[in-house]
Amino acid sequence: MPEGGYGWVVVASCSMIMFFSVGGFYSWGVIQAQLAVETFGAIVMGRLIRWMGSRNAGFLSCSLMALGQLLSSASSRNVGGLFVTNGIVVGLGTSLSFMLCSTLPSQYFKRKRGLANGAVYGAAGIGGAVLTFGVAWTFRIIGFSIIALTFPACCFLKDRLRRSTATIEWSLFWDPRFVMLALGSAIGTFPLLVPPFFLPLYTDSLGLAASLGSILLAVFNISSALGRVGFGALCDVCGPITSLSLALILSALSLLAIWPVSSSLTPLVVFTILNGLGNGGFFSTIPSVVAHIYGPVRVTTVFSMILTGWAAGYLLGAPVAGWLLDAYGGSGAGIVAYRPAMYYAGSLSVGSAGFILGVRVLTTKRKWFSFA
């Protein structure tokens, strides 16, 4: 397997696409419609990529994202219209581009696979810090920017390995490593969106300036971008399963040990940075884990099956935390009311880490210091 070469061109192209596709996820509430389309359509999108090829799939995904943003400019005052244009149309394009950009770099790298995936996902984190939504012209600018910047990037996408594989590998459900990886990553998605949804509300409960909520969200997204690159690079040093485990442990510690005692700005900033790092590390290491265990040829099929299981966490993780907040008095009851939601998110991160460590034990056959 080659190490780099044309693969770095593919990484740069995928990074540009991910900047726009996943970068908007942390912007506002239509995210839920996009996430629903992304997760439920993962298996179909994986099959579509194998049928069309990476370059054609890239053009199709970017066309849908651009079209959805331009249509959203005409629906900026209609919530129902936005759920169709920005939720479904952009969501379909995002789902296809996410599957494509998450799996294609693995065809070109082995030793530096983690760094390659980290760079691609890091661009998504930067996009989350830069892109904003709101008025009609913002949608138009983003739509035209997608056309101008991602279409040229799609020209450089190229498959290195393109073989016919099953849409669903049913035999994987008898593989304990796959079952534990699927369960662990699915549980791990529940706490991911809790901090970015709660940070503005939490800063208000502390009596801090309203602008600090937006600043902390930007810090969270920048930290997430750094975590994607950092933990991606760590995959190449100590192994992708180990790197994923460390990212989940960092998230759990920040949620259980730091956020509950963040009664002032300083510890809250520390929490935001550490949780952002762990959050980003979760996303960037999963494709490397799949490729490490199942190889680059099967990565699209296996990753699409795992991604489908993330739907419940994406859609219910933050709402459950919100329900817990309301049940304990709401934001007006002070920061104590947030703690059940913090412990809920943190305990799920611990459980997720436990499953992933189990995958590592099965993969290394109890050779604790093996690369995995």
Describe the structure.
- By secondary structure, the chain is mainly α.
- The chain has two domains: 6-154, Growth Hormone, Chain: A, CATH 1.20.1250; 170-364, MFS general substrate transporter like domains (Growth Hormone, Chain: A, Up-down Bundle), CATH 1.20.1250.
- Helices cover 74% and strands 0% of the residues.
- The chain has 15 helices and no strands.
- It has helices spanning 6-21, 31-40, 42-52, 54-72, 79-103, 113-130, 136-154, 176-189, 194-205, 210-238, 240-258, 265-294, 299-308, 311-327, 339-364.
- It is globular and about 55 Å long.
- The model is unreliable at 28-33 (pLDDT under 50).
List the defining traits of the structure above.
Growth Hormone, Chain: A, 15 helices, 372 residues, 2 domains, globular, mainly alpha, single chain
Biggest pleated-sheet summary: none
Radius of gyration: 20 Å
**Uncertain spans:** 28-33
Strand/helix succession: HHHHHHHHHHHHHHH
Task: Please provide the count of β strands.
Answer: 0
The number of helices is 15
Task: Name the overall outline.
Answer: globular
CATH architecture level-2 label of the largest domain: Up-down Bundle
Classify the helix fraction into a percent range: over 70%
Class computed from helices, strands and strand pairing: mainly alpha
**CATH superfamily name of the largest domain?**
MFS general substrate transporter like domains
CATH fold assignment of the largest domain = Growth Hormone, Chain: A
Termini separation comes to 18 Å
**Proportion in β-strands:** under 5%
CATH class of the largest domain: Mainly Alpha
- Overall pLDDT confidence: 84
